[in-house]
Each structure stands twice: as C-alpha cells, then as structure tokens.
Amino acid sequence: MEKISSDLIPCSPPMDWFLILYFLAGVLQDFLVTLNLRYINQDKLLSAMSSSFIATVVSLIVLYNLITSLDPNKSVIAIIIYALGVAFGTFLGMKFKHGFKK
C-alpha cells in the first residue's frame, strides 16, 4: 500500500475551528438568554429555568476555554468572534416566534 503524503490533505489550522465554535457558542448563548427573558415575561417558569441553565453552562465553558486554552494573542480575536455570535443570537432570539403571543 502506498502512503498518502500528509501535505496533500487539505486541512485548516485549528484556530479556524475554534473561531467557528466560539461564534456558534455565542449565537446559542444569547439566543437562549433572549428566549429566557421572553419566557420570564410570559411567566413560563420551566422554559425560563431551562434556557437560563443552558445559557450559563455555555458561557462558562467558553470563558474557561478562553482563560485556559488560547494563546493570549489569539484570545482577543476569539472574544470578538464570540461577541459577534452573541449579537447574532440576540437577533435570532428576537425573530423566534414559536410559542410566543403576538
């Protein structure tokens, strides 16, 4: 069998994947936070508790990862990407209509 040279297999640097994950984590976190506020406003206790719990876990995992795993030079970029995800998550949370009164 012939070995395939590793330089022929395209792969992106690991940091690119972390940035995508930070963006998606930001979207998820603030989508849940926005829904949480809307659930509280409509007295939906179980939904408010669930979204609050998940949003808190996501944000603390991201914070822990930023503090312990990233290079200090790359952390600022990751924080900005995460903040962009948070902004987009707010947008999605405000547009989400399922189960809410109009």
Written overview of the protein:
Helix 1 runs antiparallel to helix 2 and helix 1 packs parallel to helix 3. The termini are far apart. With 102 residues, this protein is mainly alpha-helical. It has one domain. The chain is built from three helices and no strands.
Strand content: under 5%
**Total strand segments:** 0
Mean pLDDT: 84
Radius of gyration: 18 Å
Low-pLDDT runs: none
Structural class: mainly alpha
> What would you call the shape?
elongated
SS summary, helix count: 3
- Can you tell me the number of structural domains? 1
In short:
The protein has helices spanning 14-41, 45-68, 72-95. It is elongated, with a radius of gyration of 18 Å.
Q: Which helices and strands appear, and what pairs or packs with what?
A:
Blueprint: H1 14-41, H2 45-68, H3 72-95
Helix pairs in contact: 1-2, 1-3
List keywords for this structure.
75% helix; 3 helices; mainly alpha; elongated
